[in-house]
Amino acid sequence: MSQKFQEIINSERPVLIDFFATWCQPCKVQSSVLNTVKENIGEGARIIKVDVDQYPALAAQYGVRGVPTLAVFKNGELLWKESGVHDVNTLTELLNQYS
After folding, report:
1. Is residue 27 annotated as part of the catalytic site, yes or no?
2. Domain ranges in the chain?
3. How does pLDDT run across 41-86, given as a tens digit for each residue?
4. pLDDT digits over 4-40, tens only?
5. Which of 8, 16, 50, 96 has the fewest CB atoms found within 10 Å of its own CB?
6. What is the spatial distance between Cα 14 and Cα 27, in angstroms, rounded to a whole number?
7. Structure confidence at residue 2 (pLDDT)
């Protein structure tokens, strides 16, 4: 996953990573928000989900201490990272800002 992850975040298009866990209730809320964000931004950005229980090393590498944690990458650079549930408008604006 690590090499594939590097390929994904090295994209010229912004990539929103959703670090989540299957047992996390707020993560389920965030997931439905991200579906709407994806509809809003279309091909402007990618949204990728990473299960922290399946990929703990990846979560640790990016300092994920709580879920959900969202991170935006572009050209391999971490542009934004925050924990907690975020709303559709905030995330749509954020991704449009980096497109």
Report:
1. yes
2. 3-98
3. 999 999 999 999 999 999 999 999 999 999 999 999 999 999 999 9
4. 999 999 999 999 999 999 999 999 999 999 999 999 9
5. 96
6. 21
7. 80
Nearest alpha carbon to residue 99 among 76, 72, 78, 81:
72
Coil/strand/helix, residue 10: coil
Distance CA 98, CA 44 (A): 9
Determine which one of 24, 58, 79, 85 is catalytic.
Answer: 24
Catalytic residue, chosen from 27, 50, 91, 95, is 27
Q: Is the pLDDT of residue 1 over 90?
A: no
Q: Which residues are CB-neighbours of 71 under 8 A, at least 6 positions away?
A: 16, 17, 19, 62, 78, 80, 81
Q: Which helix (H) or strand (E) holds 2?
A: helix 2-9
CA distance linking residue 66 with residue 83, whole number of Å: 7
Q: Indicate the fold that domain 3-98 takes in CATH.
A: Glutaredoxin (3.40.30)
